Structures are given as C-alpha cells and as structure tokens.
C-alpha cells in the first residue's frame, strides 16, 4: 500500500473524453467491458510506479506521485497500453505542494492540475512547466494558455509530438515560442498589428527568404491574442507541396470536420499561415473561406503574393542598420564596431544572413567574415537544428528559385546582367523581359521595385549571376552594351544643350561603368573579350560633366538597401569625380553615326560611388 505523498507532489488527473458517445457506440455491455479493462490498466501501471490513488469517480482517476519522473513514465505506459483499445484517456499533470487532507488534497495546485487535464483531448497528455522542469521528456511546446479561474497564463507542454486540435482554453493559441530573443522590428510589429486591428481581413507579410517574415508574424500574432476570443492559431505549411492539403491542414489544426467554413462560422479567429509560397494555388480555396466566415482574419507569410480579393500586402524590409548591427552583436556576443556595420550592409541587413554570419564568429572575426563575403552563399551556415531551407543563404534563395517557372528562371538569371538595377525599358530591351514575368518576379520578392526602377538585393543578385553564367547566354552582354551605348549618346546630346536635369534622369552610371569594365577593364587599356565574341570600339563612351554632388546625396536616401544594389543614382559626372576639363578631343562613331567625345574608361570605372 503506497502512503500518501507529501511535500512536492505530482498530481495526475485522467478521464475519458466523449464517454457518452462511446457508450452509444459500444453499447452498455461493450462499454462496461472496455471501462473495466481501462481501470485495470491504469491501476496496475500507476501502482507499479508508486502512484497513490487519491480518488476515482465514474471514468476519471486522480493520482499523486512523489516523483515527477515516475509519474511521466507511468502515464506514458498507460497511454501505450490503451492506444489500440476502444478507450483512450486525456491526462493533465502538475507538480506543486498541495495540502494533504487524507485521503485527498486541497489547494490551488489540485485545481490547476484538473484544469490542465480539461484543456486536452482524447489521447493527449498535458504537463505544466513545473512538471516538465522536474521530468524532462520528449514534448511539444504549446505556448502560454489562460485557464478558467486562473488569472495568469500557464505554459503547457504536450507529451510526445502527435497532432491534436487546439487546446480548450480561454485564450486558444498554439503560437510557437522561439528560443532566441527578438531584436528590433518594433515599428514593423506595431504596423502589422494596427493593420489587422483596423479591419484588414488578410495581411500577407511578403519578402525574399531570410527577411524575418515568420518571426515578425509570431510577434505580431502574439500581440493580437487578446483581440480574438476564439483563438490565434499557427499553421505551418512548409512541409506541404499539394495545394488541396492546405484546407485539410487548417481543418485538422482547428479540429474541424468535413465543413471547415461551417466549423469556423462566426468565430473570431486569427489564423497564421506560414510559408504559403509553395502552395500558392491554394489561395483559390482560402478566398471563399474568408467570404463565408465574417470574423476570420488571416496573417500570411509568403515569398509570393496570393493575389486574392481583400489581400493587404506588407513587404517586410531588411532590418534598419542599427537593428542589424544589434542583432549581430547580440547573437555573436561581441561589441559593435565599424567592420560589423560594413559587414551587415554587405549582407543587405537581412536577418537570416546576419544571424548566419554571427554564427561564424566562433572561428572567424568580423573582419575575416567580411573578407570572405564573395563566398557568402556557402560560407554562412546555420546549426543542425535549422530548417534545411535556411541552413545557408544558397539554400534559402534556391528554395525560391526552384518554385519559378522556366520563363521566370530565365529572366531571373538575365536580370543579374544589370548593376544597381534598371528601368523597365532596359529590362525589356536587355533582359528581354515581358511585363507579366517581371511582375511575377516582383510578386515573388526576387526583384524589387522602387519608383520606376527594378533591382535585386546583393545576395540574390549573386545567386542570379551564377545562374546566368551556367545558362551560357552569349547575347545578353551585347544587348547590355548596345542599350547603354545608345543611352550615353542621348545623354551626350542633352549635355551639349545644357539640359542637366534631363541628364540626371537619363544617365545610368552603374550599368555604364559595368559596360566600361567589360569593354576596357578597370583602369586598364587591355580589353577582355565579351562572352558573345563582340566588343565595342576601342575608344570610350562620351560622358557628361558638371553634375553637382547633391545628385549623389539625393540618391543615397532613396533606399534602405545597401548601396551596391540600391536603385542606382546618376553618379557619373561630378559624382564620379569627372571634371569639365577632362574631355578628350578624340571622338568615335556610334551606330547612329553621331560622334561622341572619347574618355578614358579608367577614369569612369575607378571613380568612387556616391556615399562610399
């Protein structure tokens, strides 16, 4: 006979959920037989682990254990023994110091254990934080939950990793609880929360891989728990590949039957759908769900917009420079310095890239990481527990690239021919872009648009350049040269008339310098051959002078991204350091027959960029 435990005690409540339905299903004799077997298994196993039977009523047990580990082991064995039978039980466990009132106990710990059990489902075992701390086991974190009659939220854990509907608690939520701290993004969290509270039915956090969409969604949804009486539920879609499985996964998470819309009805729910991009065709199933459920709200993370009625796009930007530096320093546990600022800028201030770089601090200093950034796609790696899609920058970008159609992949690669981005005219002429495909790349966050200019983040540009090299496209270099040579001709004519404002608008200095480097080599008279076998005349493109330095200053404010792949400023002329008096008297003929003043490409290509 086990004596009643005192002091620190682990309390275990069990019952049979849906016992009345089970009675109708099995019949009276069948149910009695199953119930008898259930009682035998529970008592035999619990008694074998020094469990003390406090009470038994109907189909519910109340046991106490002096050891939390014994209690968890006993419950696991009972669940395994009953798994294939008609009766399965739900279990709630909590460890505390209840007051003995032989043969029972009194105190809030008893009530808390009972409430924890009541929140679960058939076959589910729930543990409090206190029990889990004393008996570590394979568990699934279920987040903070408010239980009836308890003011403070309680952290709950599920024994094992089986999938169950949301817990039956006052504030239903299954939001993940990230292990790492949340750095920065206060403004973005406030904005997303405000958009949802102002009535947006569906908000899509869009952006390329690594911008922190998932973490932003978790933090924003956490702020909104109190706004949705019927719950905030997290539904991860990364493992899905078939669009029809999306609504099935939502239904399973919510514990719905065949009719998901009927189950949701008028409930006030927020569903967080994470990683929608690879099942984007399921948007056609989500749209009618929003229409049928007036109080349903969706917070979606996706590298591609869903393009359905009511969608509100929230492009997730890179971190602000101070936030990126802080993130690196917090993760790497180092003091900030100028090298870290430069490193973060070269990584586009992307949260994933910054975190991967910080992980390398064990073997490389910030300066050494910076020196190796030409290998960034493979250099920066996450730990073994990271999502395979985010273990390297290459894997993150490749995930998006592999979801593209053949036409989108071709344009993605060709777009890397531009330095600092381009206008729509240049994209159509040089990269042979059609408007629909270019728009799709923008929707999928692989190309960005600022005003009338299209551009890529540096990390994405590097991956695209690899794809272009692999494609063997031998004509794009010539199309690039032809286009920007013609542009230079137009700029030259305007500069003669003194139309400096038009000059500023027209000149694309980044791509012009790229043309120059390809033609003549940086600060050299030697001209390497172009991949297409063509090279321009041996002189140089005419340039214009006299632009004020404020042109570059204005463009420095044009984008939050790093300078190398911001929308490119007009940085030739004064911004390039070319003075009015350096124009050569020699000239050469262009395709149009006009004569352009020749200038040394070494002067243009060696000139500093604005802001550098």
Q: How is this structure best described in words?
A:
This protein is of the alpha/beta class. The protein folds into five domains: 151 residues, Alpha-Beta Plaits (2-Layer Sandwich), CATH 3.30.70; 130 residues, P-loop containing nucleotide triphosphate hydrolases (Rossmann fold, 3-Layer(aba) Sandwich); 78 residues, no CATH class; 70 residues, Arc Repressor Mutant, subunit A; 129 residues, no CATH class. The protein is built from 24 helices and 19 strands. It has a seven-stranded mixed β-sheet, sandwiched between helices. Helix 10 packs across helix 11, helix 10 packs parallel to helix 12 and helix 16 crosses helix 19.
What are the segments in which pLDDT stays under 50 over at least 5 consecutive residues? 521-612
Helix segment count?
Answer: 24
CATH class of the largest domain: Alpha Beta
Number of strands: 19
Task: Tell me roughly what share of residues is in helical segments.
Answer: 40-55%
Proportion of residues in β-strands: 5-15%
Distance between the termini: 81 Å
- Largest β-sheet summary: 7 strands, mixed
CATH-derived topology of the largest domain: Alpha-Beta Plaits
Overall, the morphology is elongated
Supply the number of structural domains. Answer: 5
Question: Superfamily at the CATH H level of the largest domain?
Answer: Nucleotide cyclase, GGDEF domain
Nearest-integer average pLDDT:
79
Structural class: alpha/beta
Computed over alpha carbons, the radius of gyration is 32 Å
Second-tier CATH architecture of the largest domain? 2-Layer Sandwich
């Amino acid at each position: 006979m086990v004596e009643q435990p005192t002091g620190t005690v682990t309390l275990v409540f069990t019952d049979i959920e849906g016992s009345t339905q089970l009675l109708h299903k099995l019949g009276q004799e069948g149910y009695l037989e199953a119930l008898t077997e259930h009682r035998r298994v529970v008592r035999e196993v619990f008694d074998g682990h020094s469990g003390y039977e406090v009470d038994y009523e109907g189909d519910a047990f109340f046991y106490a254990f002096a050891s939390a580990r014994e209690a968890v082991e006993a419950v696991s064995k009972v669940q395994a023994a009953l798994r294939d039978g008609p009766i399965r039980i739900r279990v709630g466990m909590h460890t505390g110091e209840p007051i003995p009132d032989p043969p029972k106990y009194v105190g809030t710990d008893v009530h808390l254990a009972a409430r924890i059990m009541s929140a679960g489902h058939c076959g589910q075992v729930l543990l409090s934080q206190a029990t889990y701390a004393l008996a570590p086991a394979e568990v699934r974190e279920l987040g903070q939950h408010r239980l009836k009659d308890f003011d403070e939220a309680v952290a709950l854990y599920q024994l094992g990793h089986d999938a169950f509907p949301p817990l039956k608690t006052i504030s239903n939520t299954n939001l993940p609880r990230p292990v790492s701290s949340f750095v920065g993004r206060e403004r973005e969290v406030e904005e997303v929360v405000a958009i949802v509270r102002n009535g947006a039915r569906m908000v899509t956090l869009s952006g390329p891989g690594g911008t922190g969409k998932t973490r932003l969604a978790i933090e924003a949804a956490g702020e909104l728990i109190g706004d949705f009486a019927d719950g905030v539920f997290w539904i991860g879609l990364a493992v899905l590949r078939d669009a029809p499985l999306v609504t099935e996964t939502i239904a399973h998470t919510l514990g719905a039957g065949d009719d998901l819309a009927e189950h949701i009805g008028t409930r006030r729910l927020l569903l967080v759908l994470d990683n929608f991009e690879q099942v984007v065709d399921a948007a056609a199933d989500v749209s009618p769900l929003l229409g049928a459920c007036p109080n349903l709200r969706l917070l979606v993370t996706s590298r591609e917009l869903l393009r359905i009625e009511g969608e509100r796009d929230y492009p997730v930007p890179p971190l602000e420079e101070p936030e990126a530096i802080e993130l690196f320093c917090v993760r790497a546990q180092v003091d900030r310095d100028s090298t870290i600022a430069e490193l973060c800028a070269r990584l586009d201030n992307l949260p994933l890239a910054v975190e991967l770089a910080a992980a390398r601090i064990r073997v490389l200093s910030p300066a050494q990481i910076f020196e190796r950034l030409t290998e960034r796609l493979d250099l920066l790696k996450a730990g073994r527990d990271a999502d395979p899609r985010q273990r390297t920058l290459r894997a993150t970008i490749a995930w998006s690239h592999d979801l593209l159609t053949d036409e989108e992949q071709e344009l993605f690669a060709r777009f890397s021919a531009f330095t600092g981005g381009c206008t729509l005219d240049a994209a159509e002429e040089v990269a042979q872009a059609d408007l629909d495909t270019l728009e799709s790349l923008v929707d999928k966050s692989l190309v960005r648009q600022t005003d009338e200019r299209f551009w890529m983040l540096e990390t994405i540009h590097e991956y695209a350049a690899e794809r272009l090299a692999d494609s063997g496209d031998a004509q794009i270099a010539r199309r690039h040269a032809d286009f920007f040579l013609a542009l230079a001709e137009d700029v030259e004519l305007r500069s003669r008339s003194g139309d400096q404002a038009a000059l500023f608008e027209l000149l694309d200095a980044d791509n012009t310098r790229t043309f120059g480097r390809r033609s003549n080599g940086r600060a050299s008279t030697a001209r390497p051959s172009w991949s297409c076998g063509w090279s321009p005349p041996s002189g140089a493109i005419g340039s214009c002078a006299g632009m004020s330095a404020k042109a570059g200053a204005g463009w420095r404010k044009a984008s939050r991204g790093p300078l190398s792949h911001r929308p490119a400023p007009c940085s030739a002329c004064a911004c390039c350091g070319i003075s009015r008096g350096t124009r050569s008297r020699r000239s050469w003929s262009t395709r149009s027959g006009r004569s352009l003043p020749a200038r040394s490409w070494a002067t243009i290509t060696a000139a500093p960029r604005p802001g550098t």
